[in-house]
Amino acid sequence: MEDAFPTSEDWYVCPLCLDGLTIEEFETKQLTVEDVPPKALGGKPLVLTCQKCNNDQGSKFDGEAAKQQRLGRFLAGQSAKPETAVLTLNGICSQAEITVNGTAGMLFTFPKEINDPAAVERMVEHMRMLAETQSTDFAFTVEPRLRYSPDRARVSWIRTAYLAAFALFGWKYILHPKLQPIREQLANPSAVTLPLLGMDIPDISSGRHEVWVVKAPAEHQSLLVIWGGHGVFLPLPNDPRTLEELARSLGARTDGPVHFSISGTMFSWPSRPEHLLDPDPLSGSPS
Ligand SMILES: [Zn+2]
């Protein structure tokens, strides 16, 4: 990670809170290596941030995105791990561990430790009766125990996009006033106020990790950061729109995937800080 340090200075500024740290603070772990996206979402070490931003924002935002992904994979039958859920069948309630298998359906087990044996007995008896009579007269709900905040999960993806853009383009990009609301949101997790800048892009394979400077269509002109099926649009510095106006013209929504086509310039996901727009500290020109 030595590449991440400014070579002509002995201090470093956290790109998330803009607090200054000395390089010695890397030794005392007040300056930390951050995975982008978080490791639970498949990310690798990419940039340096302060321990406070790494820990606080990791637990408040990234933890929610990890839970969202875990639940999404479970419901899509892509996870072999069971999840606990409350099952309600015609008013009979019990807790089950459920494994979803893409082709074979759902497998329920009713662990003794978390259930009243009599309720399980009633549930199983009722299921048997429905199967024998081939009755379709039943109300069945499955409510997973795992809960997450969709708002904080989407902010986590904006955080990932911001840090990837920082690694790729550097200080000159993130210090633009348009990016300040993102830092303010990250410092204030209690209320999510950022507009919808991210969306699910179902046409993109999970292996695609890239950053686009979108040129067309005009309403999508932005920096589009793609990690698998997640896309986040960040403003370009010369964009006259506010973040809210950008979100409105993107037509971002949370009720389903969005299909669109774009053209522009594509950059591979950075594997180290490249800071393409920043002056090279040795020559004074952009590196
Ligand atoms: Zn920080």
Main traits of this protein?
five-stranded antiparallel beta sheet, alpha+beta, 287 residues, binds zinc ion, 30% helix, 26% strand
- The portion of residues forming beta strands comes to 25-35%
Shape designation: elongated
Q: What bound compounds does this protein have?
A: zinc ion
Share of helix among residues?
25-40%
Sequence of secondary-structure elements: EEHEEHEEEHEHHHEEEEHE
Largest sheet: 5 strands, antiparallel
Radius of gyration: 23 Å
What is the fold's blueprint, element by element?
Blueprint: E1 11-13, E2 20-22, H1 24-27, E3 31-36, E4 44-50, H2 51-75, E5 83-89, E6 92-101, E7 105-109, H3 117-133, E8 140-144, H4 150-169, H5 171-174, H6 180-187, E9 198-200, E10 209-216, E11 222-227, E12 230-234, H7 243-250, E13 263-268
Antiparallel strand pairs: 1-2, 3-4, 5-6, 5-8, 6-7, 9-12, 10-11, 10-13, 11-12
The structure holds zinc ion (ZN).
Zinc ion binds next to strand 4 and helix 2.
